[in-house]
Amino acid sequence: MQIKWLDDLLAIEQHKNFSRAAEVRCVTQSALSRRIRSLEDWVGAQLVDRGTYPVQLTQAGQLFCEQGREALAALLELRSTLRQDEKMPGRSIQITAGHSLSITFLPKWLAQFQKHHEPFNVRVVAANIHDAVIALAEGNCDLMIVYHHPQAPILIDADKFASLPLGRDAFLPFCAPDRSGKPLYRLPGKAGKPVPYLAYTATTFLGRVADLILKNAATPCELTRCYEADMTMLLMQMAIEGYGVAWLPQSAAAPAVDSGQLVKAGGNEWNTGLEIRAYCSLANQNPTMRELWETLGKASREVGE
């Protein structure tokens, strides 16, 4: 059994709706259903009554949630205790950041920040947004740094977690150039000759943002989905090799654009903006983290004035 299956069941218990629970768990509804089936197979009993609306847990499901919640809390507390010895020495914070941001944004941001403040040690873990949110919620990181888009919000409890803007990025389509330097492929494509599309997997945050761009476009796009990956850098490399068009954060694509390996594959109607945001638990007791957050908050207020 996987711990995330229990979290899935607890989400269904709370929201009494597979669709809403899937949103909270940052997975597709079909993926959530498969995981609940896997949990039921492991338990050997039906846990969810799918014939009721709103969705209800069976008696076995209620008992499993009750006992499982206590067991999960005990396991997480034990893990937290054991991890105390693994923390970095001295003034330190642990950051969980999106895969591309951990490469394109975090090193420069940390270097700039530490120029003007007392130094501290940092441990960085790169993760997708789903795993990053879990790490923050379970207290396994002090700071989460991820992308934000108003039409694809991260479902996180504002009563327990605070957030601040750190910067901005752009999200736009790129492809390899032809010999004359023009795009090898160009949006929106043509009927009968669709543009090969290098797509993010369905459960990724940037995949949701790319879907929003395509959904909101005034002109329908002729695309054929030929490759999927959950990481920006994989899609970027495929685009560089000439396999198709990929939507990429501008910060990630910039070196390849500067070297002539990538060019824009469409006009501004295919672009959108991304905000880079930091998240912190309001219950965080790490003094170094609290100092950092206070400084970030002050800087954010000064920018807003």
Give a description of the structure.
The chain has helices at residues 3-15, 18-24, 29-43, 59-83, 101-104, 106-115, 129-137, 205-216, 232-240, 250-258, 287-304; strands at 48-49, 56-57, 92-98, 121-127, 143-148, 161-175, 195-200, 223-229, 246-249, 263-264, 272-281. By secondary structure, the protein is of the alpha/beta class. The protein has 3 domains: 3-84, Orthogonal Bundle (Arc Repressor Mutant, subunit A), CATH 1.10.10.10; 90-168 and 275-304, Periplasmic binding protein-like II (D-Maltodextrin-Binding Protein, domain 2), CATH 3.40.190.10; 169-273, D-Maltodextrin-Binding Protein, domain 2. The chain starts with a helix and ends with a helix. One of its GO terms (molecular function) is DNA-binding transcription factor activity. Belongs to the LysR transcriptional regulatory family.
Structural class: alpha/beta
CATH fold-level name of the largest domain: D-Maltodextrin-Binding Protein, domain 2
Question: Poorly predicted ranges (pLDDT <50, ≥5 residues)?
Answer: none
CATH level 1 name of the largest domain: Alpha Beta
**Percent of residues in beta strands:** 15-25%
Q: What string, H for helix and E for strand, traces the elements in order?
A: HHHEEHEHHEHEEEHEHEHEEH
Number of helices: 11
Query: What's the main sheet like?
Result: 7 strands, mixed
**CATH H-level superfamily title of the largest domain:** Periplasmic binding protein-like II
Distance N to C terminus: 51 Å
**Structural Rg:** 22 Å
Total E-strand runs: 11
C-alpha geometry: flat
Please identify, by name, the CATH architecture of the largest domain.
3-Layer(aba) Sandwich
Number of domains: 3
Mean pLDDT: 89
How helix-rich are the residues, as a percent range? 40-55%
Pfam families: HTH_1, LysR_substrate
InterPro entries: LysR_HTH_N (IPR000847), LysR_subst-bd (IPR005119), WH-like_DNA-bd_sf (IPR036388), WH_DNA-bd_sf (IPR036390)
Family: Belongs to the LysR transcriptional regulatory family.
Protein name: LysR family transcriptional regulator
